[in-house]
Amino acid sequence: MGIYYDAIGRRIAKAKRNKQGELEIHTVFVWDGSHLVQEIQKGKNSQETDRTFTYIYRHPNSYEPLAQCIDRRDEQGNRIEHEINYFHCDQIGIPREMTDSQGKLIWRGRYDAWGGLHYDRHLAQQNQGHQPFRLQNQYIDQETGLHYNFLRYYEPMTGRFMTQDPIGLQGGMNFYQFAPNAQAWVDPLGLAVICTRPLSLLTDVPKFGDIKFETLLGTNMDLAMNHTHIFYGDSSNFENVDNIGYGNHGIFKETDPNVIKKYKCDTTNIYDDNIMRKAVANISSRKDGLFSKGLQYDDDNYGLFINNCQDFKTESVKEYDRIINNKRKNLRDILV
Question: Between the CA of residue 77 and those of 54, 73, 74, what are the distances in Å?
Fold first, then answer.
């Protein structure tokens, strides 16, 4: 078996040896960023033409598959096969069933807690549906039983990755861990992100006595300010990931889908979920002599220009870096 990658590490083709012992490509993969958008299966012989599977996802930032379009043409370019199938996924984006365009069930699968397929059944012979997905952004290789997870391979029997975390110690001391709870976590890339949304004068800005801030400045004034928030898991599916931030009413979690949709994320700076949770916990319990009431990030200590959401994010990142540096130091001491 041969595997080919592009310059940024995406798998673009699989090959197997022919009767002469030479590698022949049998599957080609087409990518849009980190999303697999097309799979081309080569014909098994000179009389069989290629079949193309095009994948559509729930939304552009999601790894949850929605539909599959199958297309095959003869040598003259005439369409000889065209099907549209639909994925039906569970709460963490695993396909459980597949139906055709008429709603007829053509495939059903049953998984264990870590994404291993224990049972599947194809129910329609006339529809050659192809269901290669497992946990979000994982593609099953029938040749090896491993799941290709964009940057590395995942082994469902052990619930661990086969290769080390590509971001090294920034991903924590366990280089091979997938997730603490595969039934609750949606983590197709295994990282946390910092996100922002426009600041709402109605909910995010504190009152001065009984006078709201917008009353003093005018409701049409554009402050060009953002609320900063931490999202655990990944930004691919905000509805299913945990999050935390600091605002006028103290430390809180975003739950309103309409508000969550407004967030834009910085994917150039990424953090390990477990370490960021520890950093946030440390910051949340911090006391500071500058503030008269309890903890530094109590609701009564919020200020629009000092001790605000961005300060909470900045201090959390600083604490994250401190934890990482301590882990590196401890590891060096062990190795020495």
Answer: 18, 5, 5
